[in-house]
Design a protein that fits this description.
The complex is a heterodimer of chains A (327) and B (365).
Chain A lengths: L8 H25 L15 H9 L6 E4 L4 H6 L4 H8 L23 E4 L7 H14 L5 E6 L6 H13 L3 E7 L2 E2 L2 E2 L9 H7 L3 E6 L3 H16 L5 E6 L20 H9 L2 H11 L5 H24 L16
Helix pairs in contact in A: 1-2, 1-10, 1-11, 2-8, 4-11, 5-6
Chain B lengths: L10 E5 H15 L3 E5 L7 H4 L4 H5 L4 E2 L5 H13 L3 E6 L2 H4 L3 H8 L2 H4 L8 E7 L14 H5 L5 E3 L4 H13 L3 E7 L6 E5 L11 E4 L4 E5 L3 H14 L4 E5 L2 E3 L3 H11 L2 E8 L4 H13 L8 E5 L8 H4 L6 H12 L2 H7 L23
Parallel strand pairs in B: 2-3, 2-4, 4-5, 5-7, 6-7, 10-11, 10-13, 13-14
Antiparallel strand pairs in B: 1-8, 6-12, 9-11
Helix pairs in contact in B: 1-9, 4-6, 10-14, 11-12, 14-15
The chains are: A alpha/beta (327), B alpha/beta (365).
Chain lengths: 327, 365
């Protein structure tokens, strides 16, 4: 059976739209980064959109997500407000964290995106805490932690996995294995064994699959979410994918030669957005007119978000000390 | 936070440990979102009696043991706090909490700030400071300065049973992460504790003894030693004021300044090391704002800058006690009249083994 065979045309369209939108938002950020008005680090997810789109389409609004430094796709796919997102990168008062956070501290509680931070592994146990809260409140929701292959090297990840298995928490870990931590390849950091097999040894349900196949990601996640909701315990999803741009910043960095042109070329061939677009056109789910309408709509939304960000006032530095403690 | 006027209610004699247990139970009855978690919380020893019986009353869902994952579990509890629970985490030694510094410093302390005040982390971390019976280099650290350095954390260290109860109640009602430090030697101390619910603020020092000649500002267990010294000095007509700081962050420098305005002399007594300490911070703040009131340079009694060794022959010599405090006061005041007291300082020296808080204790901790 083809991956994604159980996915309806409507769902396929939603996946495509979500991925295309993330791609265009990331490209727009990259294009404007040189203006020097977004004065914070950005970790763009170009090439990895299928994981964000596929996982988040399988979630309900009340399911809760924590993420890491490369969080744009997760935030956007979960439904995070676009205006507040762009304004946050511009350091403006209208940002989702009022300019206090930046690209690596996004939050939109309204849609269950509870936060992201750049200390690798740091939010992983928070997601377990969120899952525990769902269990104690018996509200049928699940919690998700997005992280990369590097995070699997952090002790705290395994501490959280031990607890989650012990308590059978309604928790999903989504490991985006993009084969690199900054410039360091996986083989210099971990032994030659599958990451998800370690998760299995922790007592988790596991699945590994192609992270550039949005329909496959969606199907696997939908199944894992159902199991977690049923009380079958935590589920680990490992998706293989590839980061196109530099670790941090708006550019390509292939001149640094830390990865081969051949390897990058092969992954680019398997672009998650283009391959799903081809499939949708082949299967006549999408036609060129629809594609154009959708693209125009997304471009307008993006332009409006940048306008919002530019017009948003800067935050006041007057009351910084008042933000330290909650009253 | 409103100061509870009902502190005047009926009291009875309780140990510090019993007072902590009572505060926890009172808060748990009031607030179903409070969870108590820590290594050994429901075990037969119940964290030196401070959690005994809680599981029986509140059930295994709210009173829990935990895997030996200090950092991970701190993160899990932050996740619960962000979902509306109010976790009380307990470490039998503050040294173990060092494993959780990422979660405490990077997440708990900053979440409110870095998300523009939209969220907050209501959470209490009880940490115990060890001393004596061979606690050694990794079970005896008094790390209030480490936590007090971090904006976003409140750091309290009550010295008496009634403050322990009232401050734990306040901490369990606070919307912020509170590091609640307990010197292990205080657990057995008995004193009058009011019945029922009352709060003691987390940001106010307390005048433990009124006096006019010098101000002794104390942290945690050093309050007990300072009061012994004060009693001794009184015999020689030297009337000192003892200010129990109660919290390390925020630091109530105002109460100390008010006292120094009257006395003109300041001695700060800390349970931690001297360098980079809360005693140093207090002296700095006093010097910045109350320099004009000081008749002499302020002095400090604190641990020398080396770890505490395990052997009791070595360790007992590391801890300043009432005798050292009284000597510092005599040096600070330095008049002929005071010199007469020097010869009697030896009377303050504790008899018998010095690595235990009292003589009916036979170890281990």
């Amino acid at each position: 059976m083809k991956t994604g065979a159980s996915v309806t045309p409507g769902e396929l369209l939603a996946l495509y739209r979500s991925m295309f939108r993330i791609r265009r938002i990331e490209e727009s950020l990259a294009a404007r980064y040189a203006d020097q008005e977004m004065r914070c680090p950005v970790h763009l997810c170009v090439g990895q959109e299928a994981v964000s789109a596929g996982v988040c389409l399988a979630l309900s609004r009340t399911d809760t997500v924590y993420s890491n430094h490369r969080a744009h796709g997760h935030y956007l796919a979960k439904g995070g407000d676009l205006n507040a997102f762009v304004a946050e990168l511009y350091g403006k008062a209208g940002g989702c964290a009022g300019g206090f956070g930046g690209s690596m501290h996004l939050m939109d509680k309204r849609v269950g995106f509870l936060g992201c931070t750049p200390i690798v592994g740091s939010t992983v146990p928070l997601a377990a805490g969120s899952a525990w809260a769902h269990m104690l409140r018996k509200n049928q929701s699940v919690a998700i932690a997005f992280f990369g292959d590097g995070c699997f090297e952090e002790g705290v990840t395994h501490e959280a996995m031990n607890l989650a298995a012990l308590k059978k928490l309604p928790l999903l870990f989504v490991c985006e294995n993009n084969l690199f931590s900054v410039y360091t390849p996986l083989k210099e950091r971990q032994p030659d064994r599958p990451i998800h097999e370690v998760a299995k040894a922790h007592g988790w349900g596991v699945h590994a699959g192609d992270g550039n196949d949005a329909a496959g990601v969606f199907e696997a996640t939908r199944r894992a979410v159902a199991w977690a909701r049923e009380g079958r315990g935590p589920q680990f999803l490992e998706f293989f994918t590839y980061r196109w741009l530099e670790h941090c910043g708006p550019n390509y960095d292939d001149h640094l030669s830390y990865r081969s042109e051949r390897e990058f070329g092969q992954w680019k061939e398997r672009c998650p957005v283009v391959s799903l677009e081809r499939r949708l056109l082949d299967e006549k789910i999408l036609d060129p007119k629809m594609t154009q309408e959708m693209k125009t709509e997304i471009e307008c939304e993006i332009q409006a978000a940048f306008r919002f960000a530019l017009l948003s006032p800067p935050p006041s530095a007057e009351n910084l000390r008042q933000r330290v403690y909650a009253d | 936070m409103p100061i509870d006027v009902e502190v005047q209610k009926k009291t009875r004699s309780l140990t510090y440990a019993e007072a902590l247990r009572e505060a926890t139970a009172i808060c748990m009855r009031k607030d179903p979102n409070i969870l108590v978690i820590g290594e050994g919380v429901p075990d037969p020893k119940g964290i030196f009696g401070t959690t005994s019986g809680l599981r029986e009353e509140f059930g295994a869902e709210r009173v829990l043991d935990m895997p030996l994952s200090e950092n991970g579990m701190t993160g899990v509890l932050i996740g619960l706090a962000l979902a509306g629970f109010h976790p009380l985490m307990i470490h039998q030694r503050v040294d173990f909490a060092l494993l959780a510094m990422d979660q405490i410093v990077n997440n708990a302390a900053k979440w409110h700030f870095m998300f523009n005040g939209k969220e907050n982390v209501p959470m209490v971390v009880r940490v115990l400071v060890g001393r004596g019976w061979g606690q050694g280099p990794q079970h005896s650290q008094s790390l209030q300065a480490l936590f007090a350095h971090i904006p976003g954390l409140k750091v309290v260290m009550p010295a008496t049973p009634s403050d322990a109860k009232g401050m734990l109640i306040s901490a369990l009602e606070d919307k912020n992460p509170v590091i609640f430090m307990e010197h292990r030697w205080l657990h057995g101390f008995k004193d009058e504790v009011p019945e029922g619910f009352y709060r003691v603020p987390l940001n106010q020092a307390r005048i433990a003894k009124k006096g006019s000649r010098a101000t002794i500002a104390t942290f945690s267990y050093m309050t007990i030693e300072a009061l012994r010294a004060a009693k001794f000095l009184e015999e020689f007509g030297i009337d000192v004021e003892v200010v129990d700081m109660r919290s390390a962050s925020p630091l109530d420098a105002q109460t100390v300044t008010d006292s120094v305005k009257k006395t003109g002399h300041l001695l700060v007594c800390d349970t931690g090391w001297k360098t980079g300490s809360v005693s140093g911070e207090l002296v700095a703040q006093l010097t910045e704002t109350g320099f004009a009131y000081l008749r002499k340079a302020p002095r400090r009694v604190a641990l020398n800058d080396h770890p505490i060794p395990t052997s009791h022959y070595l360790a007992s010599a590391c801890y300043p006690e009432a005798e050292d405090i009284a000597r510092e006061i005599l040096l600070l005041l330095g008049t002929e009249k005071e010199r007469g007291a020097f010869g009697s300082l030896e009377r303050l020296r504790r008899k018998g083994p010095l690595d235990v808080p009292n003589f009916d204790f036979h170890g281990p901790f």
